[in-house]
Amino acid sequence: MKFSLIPKEEQFFDLLDRMAQYIDESAAALDDLAKNYVDVDAKIARIGGIEHACDEVCHDCLDKLETTFITPLDREDIHELVLRLDDVVDMTTTAASRLPLYRIAQPRPRVMKLSAVIVEQGKLLVSAIKRLRNKSQYSMVSNDCVEIHRLENEADDIIREAIGELFEKETNAIELMRWKEIYETLETITDCGEDVANVIHGIVVKNA
Amino acid sequence: MKFSLIPKEEQFFDLLDRMAQYIDESAAALDDLAKNYVDVDAKIARIGGIEHACDEVCHDCLDKLETTFITPLDREDIHELVLRLDDVVDMTTTAASRLPLYRIAQPRPRVMKLSAVIVEQGKLLVSAIKRLRNKSQYSMVSNDCVEIHRLENEADDIIREAIGELFEKETNAIELMRWKEIYETLETITDCGEDVANVIHGIVVKNA
Amino acid sequence: MKFSLIPKEEQFFDLLDRMAQYIDESAAALDDLAKNYVDVDAKIARIGGIEHACDEVCHDCLDKLETTFITPLDREDIHELVLRLDDVVDMTTTAASRLPLYRIAQPRPRVMKLSAVIVEQGKLLVSAIKRLRNKSQYSMVSNDCVEIHRLENEADDIIREAIGELFEKETNAIELMRWKEIYETLETITDCGEDVANVIHGIVVKNA
Question: Of A30, A76, A105, C74, most Cβ neighbours within 10 A?
């Protein structure tokens, strides 16, 4: 085991912060892809790079869990949190790569509306994770979680409208399927964000 | 913190009972919508009202978890149970609203068959949650859980038959997609019910 | 309670091993169905038989959890592990039965590619579960988990390519839907395998 001047406690929170940063970065990159749909392959490769970096931090964190005696939060909670954070970045990568995969020529306005919600949610995840170091901030962590849920509902409303419109107006079945899947995959990112918020809130509740 | 004559212990179980009641109510409302497909908007608004009321109890319960020192079950188990109960009502609302969203003119018989299964499952969830107060009833809680699983299998069989028929006879792709999604969303309610049963059974196992 | 010469500790691991064996068997049967698509009904009935046997062991294990005082792993972890193992066999049965359900005349090569990945993953699950008896083997359990994740990624790549091709070339919407669902259901088996690996790795981390 390497010698380190940073206490173990801080190291875990540093890794969690980094994972949250990757969520934030990948959300920004997805939003940029949706709004400026050029250099698509290069932009998706960049998101894939963020996912890969996030995976490495995820594995670091899981390895550290195996070899560290005392952890700042219950080990099973860190384990669950790390997996759920990783899911957000994974799903963001999946959503981005589905645009060219489903042969989308140009994202529709609602794709950008959804990516804007995803960016907002990412910033709240960064905030909630950062505040998790400090029990005096736990009520603010709960507030962040409430906001994350609210954004998931917002994404739900956007997608509901979008799909209603598709079933009303779209007569080309493949076109309908294509857009329905794109919207649903984007909305799933906010579900993954909500899953993280649920784990975070569970930690707050347990340690309150 | 407010002063209360009801012991904390009872308060949690009262809140869980109320959430289970909302599941029961929303299932009955969905069943009525399927069987009497008139005043659709008003009926869906009513289900939305139940969902909203359930959300409030859910948040009450989570808040109480943060401020209560001793809880009748492990805090993480109450947390998980509350989230999973909320999911059932959420999914019921989603399924109901998809009927007009997917431009369904008239629910087919299998929709009513599925809603009947959902009603039955809701009643078992009410029963299992009520019995959770009392360890002497834990073997009956386990029986309720087995029945909830059985109903999920029943829903599975209905949907399997329905989808086989669609892929055999339906030549209009949008029509196929429409009904497939309606059936699958209804079946997902019974999956959510099964998730609740799994959490309940986990609690029984832990405290046996 | 029956008298038994085998220590309780060993009995739980024996049951977990049997569930893993059923995963392995059902994966082999699915692979055979994909590669030799004859006697389809009989082959699917056989997979259904494996699922049924697995269900029984699952219930045995859950019953034993309720009546056993000391368990070799935390009761909630055994509970979660048993449910997730059962999910793999359930999903394998679902995927197999969807082939005739979706009126597939002949599985395409990618179906066989996916079933080969599922077979490999099943073998790793058997290995990881077997090694869980022995803490000295926990680092090898972690390695098995990493491999299981890798195979899930491999399945992801296969399906991504397959779906890209469908959206590029397939002009018949029902045909597109049919194959997309078949591929996705197969890929979900590897997601379920990954869920098992996550629970296993959580156990390793907790008991390290």
Answer: A30
